């Protein structure tokens, strides 16, 4: 059974929750975190949609997601970030399905795309299962700091840094509509 999920616009008062999710050690290896100011700007910027993901029986905050390009004349909307606190409960899948409906049904997307770090195997498997098509890989596109036990945070040497590749995936509206017709986009 798909968990109950809804998206609500993020408010300034949600900033602590959003920043704490990004800075959670379970999430940091898989995202490039923003500071509070960037999130607050995204909440206000008309080309972006910043949502708190609410889930479960009480619709408590369980994560957040950000869409970019909501006014893109080419109708290409990016899922910039999706972070869910509790892993393995189907909340991410349910939130992704709601995000697809928002992108295609509400915002009129022709193309809904994202990138995912190559080391984020759980997210990549979810996107594959949810019908996203691999477009390519941006090789070693983002620097990833690795913590060294002998160095304090922020003082990593060049040797303690490595790079991760980004896989670019997308879904077209026709693909989404076919998945819906096939019963693969069940409402969350």
Q: What would your notes on this structure say?
A:
The chain has 188 residues and is α+β, with helices and mostly antiparallel strands. It has a single domain (5-181), classed as Aminopeptidase. It is 27% helix and 34% strand. It has five helices and seven strands. It has helices at residues 15-22, 36-44, 91-106, 121-129, 173-181, and strands spanning 5-9, 48-55, 60-68, 76-84, 111-117, 133-145, 161-172. A seven-stranded mixed beta sheet has the order 1-2-3-4-5-7-6, sandwiched between helices. A hairpin with a 7-residue loop joins strand 3 and strand 4.
CATH architecture: 3-Layer(aba) Sandwich
Q: Compute the gyration radius: what is it? A: 17 Å
What is the chain-wise order of helices and strands?
EHHEEEHEHEEH
Indicate the proportion of strand residues: 25-35%
Structural class, from secondary structure content? Answer: alpha+beta
Mean pLDDT: 91
CATH C-level: Alpha Beta
Total discrete domains: 1
Fourth-tier CATH superfamily name: Gcn5-related N-acetyltransferase (GNAT)
In short:
By secondary structure, the chain is of the alpha+beta class. It has 5 helices and 7 strands; from the N terminus they run βααβββαβαββα.
Task: List the SSEs and their pairings.
Blueprint: E1 5-9, H1 15-22, H2 36-44, E2 48-55, E3 60-68, E4 76-84, H3 91-106, E5 111-117, H4 121-129, E6 133-145, E7 161-172, H5 173-181
Parallel strand pairs: 4-5
Antiparallel strand pairs: 1-2, 2-3, 3-4, 5-7, 6-7
